[in-house]
Fold:
Amino acid sequence: MSEDEAYDVLSTRSSSFEDKSMAVKTLGSTESSFATLVLKALDTGTLYFDKKEGGLYTSTKNGSFISVKTNERYQGKERNLKKVAINNSIREDLALILSIRELIDPNQSADARVDEAYNLIGKVTIDKTEPFVVLRDKSVGVNEDLAEALDYVIAAADLDSEDAKVRNGAMRILEDFSSPVLIDRFEKIAQSDPDPSNRYYAQKRVTSLKSSQRFNSGIETVYFGLSLGSVLVLAAIGLTVTFGVMGVINMAHGELMMIGAYTTYVIQQLLPSYPGIALILSIPAAFIVAGLVGIAIERCVIRFLYGRPLETLLATFGISLLLQQAVRSIFTALNKNVVIPDFMSGSVKVNEFLFLTYNRLYIIIFCLAVFFSLRYFLQHSTLGVQVRAVSQNRAMARNMGVHSGRVNALTFGLGSAIAGLAGVALSQLTNVGPNLGQNYIVDSFLVVVFGGAGNIWGTLVAGMTLGIANKVIEPIYGAMLAKIIILVGVILFIQKRPRGLFPQHGRSVED
Structure:
């Protein structure tokens, strides 16, 4: 079958899957850019044919269709276009063909080709190793890393060989390579291989691989726990300022986080082509917007209710409902999606068992940056010193000339602004909606109480501790029961230490 015949098969409505499979293999054996375009579009499900006129077209991001041969825009009626259908067998052939093309593409970097080879280990069947053997032989002496990776690809396929010696040789080659994809292969050999030496060696490898898997799974659990803890710290650290320092039970704290998330969404709508820049600009914007809303709440409502915690709870609960309804009126009740920038996508590969996602890593870094910035501000700025003075002894601070009303407004604004930053982080993890903050308000209070009201170090330790505990318990008992267990544990803890891990100190506090 020629390249033109393969084109005709894919653009004909009556073509069978067998004919399409042959067409794919034909295009895979050619090195033309046209063939690469067709294969990639077929793999991603963006290849269409005209039911009446024939011809192949690819869909673009803006919804238009382009001819794969002439690169001209489709002028016919879109209802005449139909997606080229393929089955699982063709998808497997496509994945293999595209991987081989990536491996032989001279425009690909050496590291990218090696990574692609490692991704194929365990995915290539023994009857499809010939292209990899040829490429391995060409790579010896030229790119030893690629040759080694291809050795592993071929050896993983040879584990299914009918020859006991070939299986034994494959296991020896894979002795220095550990990957979860090999566990099932080695278990099969350990259980059913007729050669006792193969069974013994395979069982040793299974034990070793499972030990590595458990160790790396533990590291991954801690990493996930730290990322969840970082979200809890970001959500609670602003509440630590308002609740711990000012004694205000702010039930609208979650809605201030929501405002930060919607600020991120609005800025991304203004810069749709630059999600990375939009995210960076959202950080100061959310800080300012949420801070101003917080100051407005304090000046209009909270300042009349100091010393009456029950009234502040009811008042801020009403404010939370008003903010939710305002968002529904402006943005509708539907969730909004915030695009994640490219630099936050993907993961860093530690080893074959452990991959750390970039978005979680950036959340952890962002949390620590916010925490240490706030700590520096409270320790070294004039307002920070006044905030600490008011929190320890309000009457004494007022007698020393501290304007407590101004400090209260700015402190509440600061806590609200930090809640806005938490909203920026949450927009990268979940959809933005009117109820976003409600999912974190209880956890925020839990972290503040557990860590010690008014102590930001306590918030950091408590948030990370609860995050890791949640991720450790969750796989065993489930998400809902894990939250209940942690809640009961915190209740029991504060029975022994009512003021938390790191209690705030000061005369008024002691009283």
About this structure: The longest strand covers residues 347-351. The mean pLDDT is 83. Strands lie at 47-50, 56-59, 65-67, 81-83, 347-351, 354-357. The first helix runs from residue 3 to 10.
